[in-house]
Amino acid sequence: MARQVSTGRKTVATAAAWLIALIIFFPILYTIITSFKTEPEAIAGVSLIPSGTFENYVEVQAQRDYFKPFLNSVVISLGSTLIALLISVPAAWSMAFSPTRRTKDILMWMLSTKMMPAVGVLVPMYLIFRDTGLLDTRLGLTIVLTLVNLPIVVWMLYTYFREIPGEILEAARMDGASTLKEIVYVLTPMAVPGIASTMLLNIILAWNESFWTIRLAAANAAPLTAFIASFSSPQGLFWAKLSAASTLAIAPILIMGWFSQKQLVRGLTFGAVK
Amino acid sequence: ETLTIATVNNGDMIRMQKLTDDFTARNPDIQLQWVTLEENVLRERVTTDIATKGGQYDVMTIGNYEVPIWAKQGWLLELNGLGDDYDVDDLLPAIRAGLSMDGKLYAAPFYGESAMIMYRTDLFEKAGLKMPEKPTWEFIGEAARKITDRNAGISGICLRGKAGWGENMAFLTAMDNSFGGRWFNEKWQPQFDQPEWKDTLQFYADLMKDAGPEGASSNGFNENLTLFQQGKCGMWIDATVAASFVSNPKDSTVADKVGYAIFPNKEGVDNHGNWLWSWNLAVPAGSQKGEAAQKFISWATSKHYTELVAEKEGWANVPPGTRTSLYKNAEYEKAAPFAAPTLAAMDAADITKPSVKPVPYTGGQFVAIPEFQGLGTTVGQLFSAVVAGQMSVDDALAQAQQVSVREMTRAGYIK
Amino acid sequence: MATRQTRSLARLMLAPSVILLLIWMIVPLAMTLWYSFQNYNLLNPAMRSFAGFDNYRYFYTDPAFFQAIANTLIIVLGVLAITVIGGILLALLLDQPMFGQGIVRILVISPFFVMPPVAALIWKNMIMHPGYGVLADVARFLGMRPVDWFAQYPLLSIVIIVAWQWLPFATLILLTALQSLDEEQKEAAEMDGANFLNRFRYIVLPHLSRAITVVILIQTIFLLAVYAEILVTTNGGPGYASTNLAFLIYRTALLSYDVGGASAGGVIAVVLANIVALFLMRAVGKNLDR
Amino acid sequence: MGTIKLENVTKSFGATVIIPKVDLEIADGEFVVFVGPSGSGKSTLLRLIAGLEDVSGGAIAIDGRDVTRVAPARRGLAMVFQSYALYPHMSVFNNIAFPLKMAGESRETIDRKVKDAARVLNLTSYLERRPGQLSGGQRQRVAIGRAIVRQPTAFLFDEPLSNLDAALRGTMRLEISELHHQLKTTMIYVTHDQVEAMTLADKIVVLNGGNVEQVGSPLELYRKPANLFVAGFIGSPRMNLIEGAAADAKGARTIGVRPEHVTVSKTAGDWKGTVGVAEHLGSDTFLHVQADGVGPVTVRTDGEIGLAHGETVYLTPDQTKLHRFGADGRAL
Amino acid sequence: MGTIKLENVTKSFGATVIIPKVDLEIADGEFVVFVGPSGSGKSTLLRLIAGLEDVSGGAIAIDGRDVTRVAPARRGLAMVFQSYALYPHMSVFNNIAFPLKMAGESRETIDRKVKDAARVLNLTSYLERRPGQLSGGQRQRVAIGRAIVRQPTAFLFDEPLSNLDAALRGTMRLEISELHHQLKTTMIYVTHDQVEAMTLADKIVVLNGGNVEQVGSPLELYRKPANLFVAGFIGSPRMNLIEGAAADAKGARTIGVRPEHVTVSKTAGDWKGTVGVAEHLGSDTFLHVQADGVGPVTVRTDGEIGLAHGETVYLTPDQTKLHRFGADGRAL
Ligand SMILES: Nc1ncnc2c1ncn2[C@@H]1O[C@H](COP(=O)(O)OP(=O)(O)OP(=O)(O)O)[C@@H](O)[C@H]1O
Ligand SMILES: Nc1ncnc2c1ncn2[C@@H]1O[C@H](COP(=O)(O)OP(=O)(O)OP(=O)(O)O)[C@@H](O)[C@H]1O
Ligand SMILES: [Mg+2]
Ligand SMILES: [Mg+2]
Questions:
Q1: Which residues contact B51 (CB under 8 A, 6 or more apart)?
Q2: Complex ipTM over 0.90
Q3: Residue D36, ligand 1, Cβ within 6 A
Q4: Domain E4-231 carries which CATH code?
Q5: Ligand 1 atom closest to residue D47's alpha carbon, by position in its atom list
Q6: Tell me, what CATH number does C84's domain have?
Q7: How close D151 gets to chain E, by Cα (Å)?
Q8: Tens digits of residue pLDDT in A36-56
Q9: pLDDT band at D304; cut points 50, 70, 90
């Protein structure tokens, strides 16, 4: 479409897009704005200009240390993502390059494991975790999140790998590479964009997972989802403090998401291209 | 030694966390680690943990609802190491009774509350009303309707409408008590088909419709607190702790115009609801750190702690409702105008005899059986739907009766 | 890629994922099955006994059961409808040349990064609150009575919140798919005399079908399990108006601590989810192979 | 009718000028082929005519009507894209029917016209298939089918055969030629294949860097290339271009002689040289000879030749078929 | 050394037999070209030799050693793929070095060998680039470079030039020929390009439906095709195959004569016919003549011929170059 787009049309598109984007973003924006208001201000009706107080953040931090859950969130989401990748790269390799009649079924079955209602198996899981000493450990949460997200990771990698021409892997084989080397030196580096976006999506999903993380952790391993659970309905005026806590909870992942937006977009193709 | 303490995220508990330096200075070998959670999540977490013996917490914050149930299961450690200077006898008898079984104390109260009426003296004056010493529901209904001024955004009365056994059901259960009703008869038969409940619910629904605020069906304690502080309620019947918030000029626009009165009753029924609640600290039975845990509990619920708060944050901020000595303290009385009505409310509450009719259970604004959380919440949903205008009073009661029978049968109460 | 050696190696490499997921699926599932035949209340461990099918009967006869199933479907279908249709429109819009495209895109995808409880809290307290919410203020400004969203339209409110979270996801996938549409194909259609609407209907929409399938599939998986948003906002009410299956199980498991009942609910939910999955695969799955 | 006229057409993308200025007239029913190296602007020119790009300057007229500002769909042209741009989700029938549907034709008309087109293109038995299930040649025919149903004023082809293998290209080339004879519609055809250009065209337009280097019939271009560029570009194997003494002798900066216009002898001739690689095709042999003082010369000889690597030979260019070029590269 | 021997090799995918049975011997240093129509099993055969597919039956020996069950990496062969299969994330240097790295060579050895290979292939100044930054011809050279560093027993090429444009193909063809002269390593080369097959091969293997139709030198195949299939497949334009009376007269079911072996006259000749389409390439003209009682005959004549569509001509096939085929299609 190398025809000139009339400025008029571009302006209309711009206006419409910005309007909708702002509406969609508004709840987040308003939360951020509110976090800089004083409590009475926060409930005094819509206003987009806060008085600029940092009091809420100070208060939130005083109530509950932010950095430990933040660190836990980082460790757990990164850790589970890395482990999931380690397990699923070979699996996706084998499904993409050595498919059988059952490959599709296996894939669907994997996805269907995600349909189990988590709360239905909470007690069994709690007992298993208690007996293995994994309660309230980062390791425990990492394992759970790995398993929770594994199907999605396998699927994404699979669609990615399928786009890589098999000839290149055969070339590596002819060049004397073992299967392991083939995956490490050829496949993985070639799939870097795909792997990167898979990673990003998985980090987001892991970061936001809020059933297991709240229920299987207490003090030591509690991530930001638990942090926010201590602000959701306290006594007294809390809109501004809740806003500050919410902002703190979503800020890291939001910023990461903004910076890696392009990568993420690529990853969300799910093989939709072609 | 590190103690992991699960607490609810209310103001008093948060304040305690800030003051723990005092404790660690005295007990340098004990570190404290906090797990602060919103009430429902906290309850869910500690219950799962203690029932499965997960052992994640050394000290748990639990309500007087849980204490007898858990103690009966043998899940709680008897608190016998609180120290010589702890003065157990100073605890308010009503509170203490709720935390003891067979004379043994299983949890120590951190703060306690009952319920009472908070009302706007200015509005009452304007309307030419005077709050009687022992108001009846009839009076409350009339007064609320009179005060209501929709144009000025003032609702005559704010009451809990949000579904939940600890939300609207706490209030409605207490209200039903004061209407002479009860949850169960001696054979554990649910009583929603009885006239008392019908009166209660009808009165409540009509009142909310005529004099309640917008969106009442999603208002809980906190929402009503905000409304009242904003000057939008003429009356508010709720937990006594609210008094310290509404009378605090920092947050409240009506701090100097609040009057207090005892929980209303139906004409001819001598019952003021029997609302009694306390947040308590307890130690799981299997704990390896029982001794240190008791040391902490002793500190947190002691007179010393009260003084510590008074010294650092002022008398108005000390945790109320646990010790008789506090209400004999002149300084407290001076700083807290609501001290006397609070004590009166607490003294009036008797959770062993919630209703004027005989009941097989204990508990004031709740029924101290394990099934109550689930059942109370389900019934709460139905009643909340009434307030939301989605269901009629009769339908709600019929369904409440049905689910209660079902639930009680399943749990084996009804043979 | 087809020598015996590589094939057997492939099986070997697939094994860890399959085995892990099998364990992850089977162990809890087996335990759940077992518990579902037990009378087991966490708060009353002494009463444990064999229950037969009591738990199932109990769960199935819960007055909220059928409404919960209906609500589950409404949430899934409602959110899917909003996100797919909205996603397509939004993707079409974002595909246009405009000023500040990058920022617009960032704004649009942001809700995807918000954890569900936070999203629910924000909507409940900042936006939909009948007293202090932005929508109430807007309504008052317009001289209307503020809507008490969670009391009057509980299910709709949940759908809106959840759709808000998933709209970015759908938009992104559809946008990527849109951008992969062969430019020459659109030009060919133009040469063939197709106007914008016809191009959309005959060229763009069919091209998107695969991406739409992906959106539907992935979202369904997550939407069947929505519960945090309900817990934070309506708590399933008023009445059972916003109770879905996941929340019903939640209520059974973590309010009544009825492990047996919740397990039976879990088993029922697994069965229903698999029916949905099967149905989905039949209906849209073949789009994936194309 | 199907005359196309470009007047002073220019095209820039931003600051880069792609087509400095082109004037071109195409008569009704003519088969015009655009050739030129990659990036020379062939596709751009075609797309300008189609209306898929806006001209930066100048005017385009079809059948005497100025269409410079007219939308592609209204120009009455049909285009066959290099990638065919078939609609992958539609059956062959629907692909071909699409333009008719868009024109709002009735069901019966569509059915009849599509079946007619399918018959002409031998696609009748594939009408229910999807493009994905067709071979390259069949796909191309569908693309053509989609173009012919509308009876356009002119066809535009952008390298329609470049995706096919050699054998199929040959067949399809003949089919397109056939089609042109049948329909007698104006066709503009972009290719970089020598054989296609030479065999199909009534008129070839040689483009280089957005400029028209020469316009003429295939044999005109073969026999009288206007300049060095055209000389080197048309003909295979390439014309031998020789500079230096041998050229000076003819009073030119460069002389050119085609491989088929050089005779080889073992005994005597104008230029002496040594045989390098010999490529035997059976029917012909391409002899690469290093000629003393002249440089490498390619010679095309008949199939049966018995010359060994390293042997000395004598070459004689056909004087009547010698091309002479001046310092500016133009033919003298 | 680099002899390759296939004995009774068969290959099926599931129930479909792709290669019924092939026996083939390739001598050390030979340049063997596999040709055949699409789907005839050329690639499959190559991949069987490479070890990228398992044989379903039979044995493959390299240098006398049975390698039927040996992994591809251990067969000592190097392969150049149609798409080159370069590692896009590695520099040219690392691409070429990859096989050496896998073989565990020392840094210095790798460095030396890669630089040597790069010199041979004129890639020295591109060593730091990524494949994405190279032209098609350069990429192909890298692919070859990756193959030659290891000094394999034999090279396998699967249509290595099919992705290039015509001009580049010519150049690269010469380079591969050059390379073979230099290295003298056995090469197996799959193509469907006539010119490549004819000019490069020492020996051509013609495949059809998984069967070997004929094996021989290019000129042997051109001159003495063993059967109708080979006759029709080798040579461009295609050999005219004539049945009926004209064939019967020669005592054969079918006779074949190549277009270049027919002479045209306006006055007299063996077969009378009418001129159809004439394709003018400048250097040659392909004349399609409808000969009475014989059928369509393609004739290749010199560039300058003045025959018009519909004119009557007389054709005379060169009797010495006539091919005769029996009822079974085999040459008589
Ligand atoms: N949208 C564009 N923006 C900038 N430059 C462009 C654009 N489209 C084409 N060009 C440039 O215009 C020139 C001509 O392109 P065009 O596609 O017409 O060449 P072509 O002759 O068709 O080449 P080919 O044989 O490779 O198809 C090229 O240098 C190309 O890079
Ligand atoms: N993995 C496979 N499964 C089933 N059939 C296959 C497989 N690979 C190839 N074939 C079939 O084997 C036959 C030979 O294929 P092959 O690729 O060897 O042909 P080719 O001669 O290389 O053709 P081309 O010139 O098109 O490359 C074809 O009919 C093909 O469809
Ligand atoms: Mg082009
Ligand atoms: Mg092949």
A1: B75, C42, C43, C45, C257
A2: no
A3: yes
A4: 3.40.50.300
A5: 18
A6: 1.10.3720.10
A7: 25
A8: 887 777 777 677 777 777 877
A9: low
Instruction: Compute, in angstroms, the gap from residue E84 CA to the centroid of ligand 4.
Output: 13
CB contact under 8 A, C194 and D52: no
Is residue E32 over pLDDT 90? yes
Residue C166: give the domain boundaries.
51-288
With an 8 Å Cβ cutoff, is E54 touching chain D? no
Least confident piece of the model among C37-46, D160-169, E114-123: D160-169
Q: Where are the alpha helices (DSSP H) in D51-193?
A: 92-102, 107-120, 136-148, 166-183
Residue A272 has pLDDT above 60, yes or no: no
pLDDT for C284 beyond 90: no
Report the gap between the CA of C101 and the closest CA in chain D (Å). 20
Q: Which residue's structure tokens are 């939709």?
A: A272
What residue spans define the domains of chain E?
4-231, 237-325
C103 touches chain E (CB under 8 A): no
* Candidates D79, D83, D89; nearest CB to C191: D79
Lowest mean pLDDT among B133-137, D68-72, E281-285: E281-285
pLDDT band at D214 (very low <50, low <70, confident <90, very high): very high
Cis peptide before B213 (omega within 30 of 0): no
Domains of chain A: 65-230 (1.10.3720.10)
Interface probe for C, chosen from D74, D95, D98 (most Cβ of C below 10 Å), is D98
pLDDT of B278-333, one tens digit each?
888 888 887 888 888 888 888 888 888 888 888 888 887 888 888 888 888 888 88
D237-325 matches D4-231 in CATH topology: no
Q: Do residues B360 and B369 lie in contact, with contact meaning Cβ atoms separated by under 8 Å? A: no
- SS in 3 state form for E24-80? EEECCCCEEEEECCCCCCHHHHHHHHHCCCCCCEEEEEECCEECCCCCHHHHCEEEE
- Backbone dihedral region of C201: left (phi > 0), alpha (psi from -120 to 50 degrees) or beta? alpha
* Number of the ligand 1 atom closest to the C-alpha atom of D37: 25
Residue C59 lies in a domain: yes
- How would you class A54 by CB atoms within 10 Å of its CB: exposed for 0-12, middle for 13-18, buried for 19 or more? exposed
How many angstroms is it from E6 CA to the middle of ligand 2? Answer: 19
- Poorest-pLDDT segment among B88-97, C252-261, D87-96, E107-116: C252-261
Residue to mutate, E9, E33, E44, ligand 2, most ligand atoms under 8 Å from C-beta = E44
H-helix or E-strand spanning residue B100: strand B100-101
Contact assignment for E277 to D165 by CB distance below 8 Å: no
Q: In chain C, how many domains are there?
A: 1
What is the DSSP track for B154-168?
A: BEEEE---S-STTTH
CATH code for the part of the protein at E237-325: 2.40.50.140
Best of A1, A3, A5 to substitute, by most chain D Cβ atoms within 10 angstroms, is: A3
With respect to residue C191, please indicate whether it lies within any of the assigned structural domains. Answer: yes
Contacts of C238 in chain B (CB under 8 A): 163, 217, 381, 384-385, 387-388, 390-391
Q: What's the mean pLDDT in C57-69?
A: 83
User: E188: buried, middle or exposed (CB in 10 Å: 19+, 13-18, 0-12)?
Assistant: buried
Q: Chain E within 8 Å of A163 (Cβ-Cβ)?
A: no
What's the pLDDT at E85? Answer: 85
The strands making up E65-66's β-sheet, listed across from edge to edge, are: E16-26, E4-13, E57-62, E65-66
Nearest CA in chain C to A265: C172
Residue nearest to atom 4 of ligand 2 (CA): E13
Quick one: D292 exposed, middle or buried, by C-beta within 10 A (0-12, 13-18, 19+)? exposed
pLDDT tens-digit readout, E79-99: 888 888 888 888 999 999 998
Q: For position B99, what pLDDT does the model report?
A: 86
Task: Identify the band that residue D161 occupies on the pLDDT scale cut at 50, 70 and 90.
Answer: confident
